[in-house]
Design a protein that fits this description.
Length: 341
């Protein structure tokens, strides 16, 4: 029981990780796959009654369907419900928005992982501004520090290459092709520039694009990796091209690794990356400016180091795990004090 808090995880359906790993707290599987399944509302109420009888007082929801059913049912059972929002609401449907707005009176507080997400939640879900708190994602301070490099990445660094990395699963919203196109624009001006793509999904269309642009030999598609921090230590620049982001963990991971960052101005990105101080920002889809930023950083080692070192310091202070936990504990205490009055 850390910090005097007893935790219990509730999920709609089980996962292999939950069942097969040594999960650090107790858990309950409700056995429902969606809001449309009969009985889920009653099951949530019964669960709330059981937990309230055991002394639990706050429920914190992290996923979309649960944030619809939990506030009214757990509220009836005597629990206060906190909702976390971590994206820009691309999953909203008219029906879910109607339910979220209708149930908002039963929500004790909303937590957003960026100011951009908080503003979006207030507008879309009619979350109450005075009950909405921004708490950034937290990372262990040691993340990105003193990690032995990956051997294949060391090989890529040969011959004076400048390695630009992008860590993201292959999805249209990530616009990874923009980075490949920027590499194509710079094939004559910055021949040392190479791009490393790390993430799950079909990377073959990106390889095809690289070959079509004449930079197939400078594009390295590594697929999914379980040693991302080690890979980051071999890079020179971190990039994110997304058209929508709530708050990107990849950006903070780049910063903790001491990398200068080039990323879009989408969502919460400017809250992590300060233009000209820890990285360089550009408009979504503006491949020309992306290429200009990469050319600037590729040709100036001192500037890269300056941005990267400042980014690491800021990330260690602003996005530390302890900072995130402290902010959650402060909110929970406020809710408990408010109920006791």
């Amino acid at each position: 029981m850390a910090r005097g808090v007893e935790c219990h995880l509730v999920v709609l359906t089980a996962s292999d990780y939950l069942l097969n790993e040594d999960f650090p707290c107790g858990f309950t599987v409700l056995g429902y796959t969606s809001l449309g399944r009969p009985g889920i509302w009653g099951a949530m109420y019964s669960l709330g009654r059981r937990f309230r009888a055991q002394g639990f007082t706050i429920a914190h929801t992290f996923f979309n369907d649960v944030s619809v059913v939990a506030p009214p049912m757990l509220g009836l059972a005597g629990l206060q419900t906190v909702i976390s929002r971590r994206d820009m609401g691309f999953w909203h449907t008219p029906g879910k928005l109607w339910l979220l707005r209708a149930m908002r009176g039963q929500v004790a507080a909303w937590i957003a992982n960026s100011r951009a997400v908080a503003d979006k939640t207030i507008v879309q879900e009619w979350a109450k501004p005075e009950r909405t708190r921004v708490i950034y994602n937290g990372f262990p301070i040691e993340h990105g520090a003193s990690i032995e490099g990956a051997s294949d990445m060391d090989a890529l660094r040969s011959n004076g290459r400048v390695l630009v990395g992008l860590v993201a699963n292959v999805r249209p919203i990530k616009r990874i092709q923009d980075l490949v196109c920027a590499l194509g624009r710079l094939k004559e001006d910055v021949p040392a520039l190479n791009v490393v793509l790390i993430g799950d999904g079909d990377q073959e269309p990106l390889r095809d694009l690289g070959r079509d642009l004449g930079v197939g030999d400078r594009l390295h598609c590594l697929g999914s990796r379980n040693d991302v921090p080690a890979c980051l230590n071999a890079l020179d620049i971190g990039v994110l091209c997304s058209e929508s982001e709530g708050f990107s963990n990849a950006l903070v991971e780049y910063m903790l690794a001491g990398l200068p960052v080039v990323c879009t101005e989408a969502g919460g990105n400017p809250e992590a990356v300060e233009h000209g101080e820890t990285g360089l920002l550009y408009g979504v889809g503006d491949v020309e400016t992306l290429a200009t930023h990469l050319q600037c950083l590729a040709g100036d080692v001192e500037y890269r180091q300056k941005l990267g070192e400042k980014g690491r310091r800021i990330a260690q202070e602003r996005f530390a795990m302890e900072t995130m936990v402290d902010a959650h504990m402060a909110l929970y205490s406020e809710l408990l004090e408010g109920r006791s009055r």
